[in-house]
Amino acid sequence: MTDGSEERRDDLGADASAEWLSQIAAAPDAQALQELRVRLIGKKGEITQQLKQLGKLDPDERREQGQRINALKGRVEEAIEARKAELERQRLDAQLASERVDVTLPGTRPTQSGLHLLTLVTNRLLDVFRSLGYEVVTGPELETDHYNFTALNFPPDHPARDTQDTFWTTDGRLLRTHTSPMQVRYMEAHKPPFKLVVPGKVFRNEAVDVTHEAQFHQLEALVVGERITMADLRGAINEMAQALIGPGTKTRLQPTYFPFVEPGAEFAIWWTNPRTGREEWLELGGCGMVHPKVFEAVGYEGVTGFAFGFGIERLALVPYAIPDIRYFYQGDMRVLEQFRGVL
Ligand code: PHE
Predict the structure, then answer these.
(1) Residue 265, beta-bridge partner list
(2) In this structure, is the dihedral angle defined by the CA atoms of residues 140, 145, 150 and 155, taken in order, positive or negative?
(3) CA–CA distance, 25 with 73 (Å, rounded to integer)
(4) What is the pTM of this model?
(5) 288 within ligand 1 shell (Cβ under 6 A)
(6) 139 lines ligand 1 (CB under 6 A)
(7) pLDDT tens sequence across 62-108
(8) Which numbered atom of ligand 1 lies nearest the CA of 285?
């Protein structure tokens, strides 16, 4: 045993094995670990080589060295397994950390849509009337002369047919010029008593300017029953005014003429114009007691009733300082976005 095998045995001693074990423990990844495995205990690995050398030793030394080398091999195998498990755990931890989702972060909000200002104002009005027990109904925009005029006591030659600047169709029908025709349609189909409101589009062949559009919206109200009086009309208008503007809001009726009411009036609400900060009358629309001729046209007897109707744009134009009524219908996002979430 002079060919350096003494030295070799020293290589396989405690120092060498400690070095290997620390290399294993520090292997940076699975590939480095695999290289160490091949280098140490692979077919041509250093420890394998040592085991192969055992045959050359005499029996006593073979047993001693054999035990030692096998024990070392066992420790190396264990260390490799341990490092392998550790690397796998680190890989998992890293993956978990990189894929982590903080579910407590606020979510990405989808672009929020919103209702058109006129829809918001209309909904608010309908809420007020529903809470007062009114039914909400809608009616056709394409009307007949009968419902729009005749049944509402407009005489055949009445200038209102011209002054309301009606859009006629070629078959003699028309785009309704107000929501009042629904008074007649509803009365034909129902028996009193009842309370209803009718929101909807109306059309007038007007020269379009900042306060006039060929199309706008009205809200009509009709209440019919026994002993309905002008006081009930005033009460309804007051309730609406107080619900819209606040307790104690004053209202005003001034006599005027509509063929389908008698007496007839135009009505206004006292309010602080949010645009100017000034208190003033907001002229809303027309009202009155249902004309006996209208009841006659629908075959009602022994009842009275009131009606009122007004333009919804007025309620939106004035408080929101909209300078031009045409903005309502142009679909310009710069206008529409300003009214997201108002009311
Ligand atoms: N329909 C009328 C208009 O458009 C308003 C009105 C409704 C008047 C109900 C009296 C009663 O001008």
Answers:
(1) 255, 287
(2) positive
(3) 15
(4) 0.68
(5) yes
(6) no
(7) 899 899 999 999 999 999 999 999 999 999 999 999 998 888 988 88
(8) 5
